[in-house]
Write a structure and sequence with these properties.
This protein has five helices and no strands. By secondary structure, the chain is mainly α. α4 packs across α5.
Length: about 90
């Protein structure tokens, strides 16, 4: 007697697996809020933005990396750079 193979209904399992690969709505909203806050901070300080863009490209990239690594805002990093450049305590 031959064995009979039946397909099980795995549709709910596959939907669950698919959900793992989709970005969560809450996470997307949080990232959007963070981006808006960062842009608002920069909009408030036009002088700092102008200073950032007046720097050479390599220094801009270095400051962005420092910001990412130290978890400080670019605004704080720029202020630190200005203080060190002008030797302000």
């Amino acid at each position: 007697m031959a064995k009979r193979f039946e397909m099980e209904d795995n549709s709910s399992h596959l939907e669950g697996v698919g959900a793992l690969f989709k970005g969560s709505v809450k996470k997307d909203e949080q990232q959007k809020e963070k981006k808006e806050e960062a842009l608002a901070d920069l909009d408030d300080d036009k002088e700092l933005v102008n200073y950032l863009f007046s720097m050479e490209r390599g220094l801009q990239k270095k400051l962005k990396n420092m910001s990412t690594n130290s978890r400080k805002s670019i605004k704080e990093i720029i202020l630190i750079a200005i203080k060190s450049h002008y030797k302000i305590e």
